[in-house]
Amino acid sequence: MRPYAIVLMLFVSLVALLWCTPDVQNDLVEIKAPTQAELVKRGEYLVTVGVCDDCHSPKVFGPNGPEVDSTRRLSGHPREEPVPKITDPGMVKPGQWVLFGPMFTATAGEWGVSFSANLTPDDTGIGNWDYKQFEKAIREGKSKGMDGTRPLLPPMPWFNFAQMSDEDLQAIFAYLKSLPPVNNAVPNPIPPTKMFSE
């Protein structure tokens, strides 16, 4: 076979190969960052399915039992709400009961009494927090999202939420920052040594 015939066959084979190979650039999908509105909507969904209202929203009692008070949604345990007395200290000893207050925003157990935090963008809530503080609170269980603070107390399942993707955590933060601010300075936790005193 003549050399030009070999070159011609190689050239035709190369052209056929290139012609039949799909254009990779046409298969690429452009991934866009979500808009702020999309981020907030995703955050609202995650807050809803994550049942944040169960502990962080004061309740009113309706025909079907406790319902979220929409005027104080996600504002934490109301400061003015009295803490029910625990009449039998044995009930909250290790291995015994965990007790919830009537609004489900206060919880008593062997750690003492904890109060759900204000998650609204008021200064008494997360109003002056940046995303890094929120991330530290959720990922490391740090109160106020700051080093050197106490751990988040039960029943906050921060160790489960710590597994969320960065995108989901950012969406939740965006949603919480979009809420109407509610002024409510949640009480400090009551240590176990003081939860039975008058």
From TrEMBL:
<keyword id="KW-0479">Metal-binding</keyword>
<dbReference type="GO" id="GO:0046872">
    <property type="term" value="F:metal ion binding"/>
</dbReference>
<dbReference type="GO" id="GO:0009055">
    <property type="term" value="F:electron transfer activity"/>
</dbReference>
<protein>
    <recommendedName>
        <fullName>Cytochrome c domain-containing protein</fullName>
    </recommendedName>
</protein>
<dbReference type="GO" id="GO:0020037">
    <property type="term" value="F:heme binding"/>
</dbReference>
<dbReference type="InterPro" id="IPR009056">
    <property type="entry name" value="Cyt_c-like_dom"/>
</dbReference>
<feature type="compositionally biased region" description="Basic and acidic residues">
    <location>
        <begin position="69"/>
        <end position="83"/>
    </location>
</feature>
<dbReference type="InterPro" id="IPR036909">
    <property type="entry name" value="Cyt_c-like_dom_sf"/>
</dbReference>
<dbReference type="InterPro" id="IPR051459">
    <property type="entry name" value="Cytochrome_c-type_DH"/>
</dbReference>
<keyword id="KW-0408">Iron</keyword>
<feature type="region of interest" description="Disordered">
    <location>
        <begin position="62"/>
        <end position="88"/>
    </location>
</feature>
<dbReference type="Pfam" id="PF00034">
    <property type="entry name" value="Cytochrom_C"/>
</dbReference>
<feature type="domain" description="Cytochrome c">
    <location>
        <begin position="38"/>
        <end position="180"/>
    </location>
</feature>
<keyword id="KW-0349">Heme</keyword>
